[in-house]
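Hi support team,

I've been running sequence recovery on a batch of backbones for a student project. Most finish fine, but this one hangs at about 90% for roughly twenty minutes before it completes. I'm not sure whether the input is malformed or the queue is just slow. I've pasted the structure tokens below so you can try to reproduce it. Let me know if you need the job ID as well.

Thanks,
M.K.
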């Protein structure tokens, strides 16, 4: 965890809004990202520092604790209630001259990165408790968690609909990534324990994969709804027909109503993108596109026959 002021690291005032903190982080993360600065260790450390600062300040509860108790609130095992009791006791003292509360596990507190100091015996001496050896420092570094990291993953529309698993290379490592159905462009996939290494035996941070949804050559997206062009012959459009439509989950049979025009949308409920939060799925729309036969003498004669069927000018209602 960074030792400097987290607000200074992100270059924002303490009164900054959540959106201002997010904008500052995005700007700095883009500037110092390892992919933008390959081999630059200083930039890599700076990226880790701003990411760690953002993790705290973007979380309302952790930010409140940091604002109230400072860097101590970021240490492993921090107890807000006991810290508040200790602060009140330190500020006002105990009327009876004795210990105002039971420190419990708070008897031992971390001192920087050098060890832990046992206050139990000192409080015993000062307030009439059980005698014991003087306070002492347990030498040795304190384990600390690794920082979270970010990377990108490109996901196909098929994977977004069906989900799946895939191997991904990140910083020389091959990671198995599970892609949940319904991922959207810009959403994140969390890989626990795959971020920066922890210090002195502490747990590794997490890796967050930002999803980039790859466009499909034939299927268009609008939110959770999908649109696919459906070629239809003139006889099928005139008389109506049952046709086969491919989907990501297999082919389905679809009824084209008689008199369908180009642009007519045929809706298949629940065949669109799933909802990542468990809500209803989107729909798939088959968009009718009339296909004319290739030119021939027979086609010319058929067109002449069709021409006689148009009793009105189809463009008569257009006005600007």
């Amino acid at each position: 965890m960074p030792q400097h002021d987290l607000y200074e690291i992100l270059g924002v005032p303490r009164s900054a809004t959540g959106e201002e903190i997010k904008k500052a982080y995005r700007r700095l993360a883009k500037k110092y990202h390892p992919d933008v600065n390959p081999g630059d260790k200083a930039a890599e450390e700076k990226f880790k520092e701003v990411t760690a600062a953002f993790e705290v300040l973007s979380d309302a509860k952790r930010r409140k604790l940091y604002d109230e108790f400072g860097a101590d609130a970021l240490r492993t095992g921090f107890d807000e209630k006991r810290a508040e009791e200790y602060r009140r006791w330190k500020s006002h003292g105990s009327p009876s001259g004795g210990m105002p509360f039971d420190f419990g596990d708070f008897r031992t507190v971390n001192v920087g990165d050098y060890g832990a100091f046992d206050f139990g015996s000192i409080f015993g001496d000062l307030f009439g408790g059980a005698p014991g050896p003087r306070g002492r420092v347990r030498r040795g570094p304190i384990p600390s968690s690794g920082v979270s990291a970010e990377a990108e993953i490109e996901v196909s529309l098929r994977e977004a609909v069906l989900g799946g698993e895939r191997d991904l290379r990140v910083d020389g490592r091959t990671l198995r990534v599970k892609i949940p159905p319904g991922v959207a462009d810009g959403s994140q996939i969390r890989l626990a324990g795959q971020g920066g290494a922890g210090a002195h035996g502490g747990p590794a941070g997490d890796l967050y994969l930002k999803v980039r949804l790859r466009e499909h050559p034939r299927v268009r997206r609008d939110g959770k709804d999908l649109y696919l062009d459906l070629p239809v012959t003139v006889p099928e459009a005139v008389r109506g027909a049952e046709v086969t439509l491919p989907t990501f989950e297999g082919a389905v049979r679809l009824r084209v109503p008689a008199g369908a025009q180009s642009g007519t949308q045929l809706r298949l409920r629940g065949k669109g993108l799933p909802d990542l939060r468990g809500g209803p799925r989107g729909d798939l729309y088959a968009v009718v596109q009339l296909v004319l036969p290739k030119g021939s003498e027979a086609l010319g004669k058929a067109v002449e026959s069709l021409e006689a069927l148009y009793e009105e000018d189809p463009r008569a209602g257009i006005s600007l």
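--
Follow-up from support: It reproduced on our side and the slowdown came from queue contention, not your input. The first strand starts at residue 108 and ends at 111. No action needed from you.
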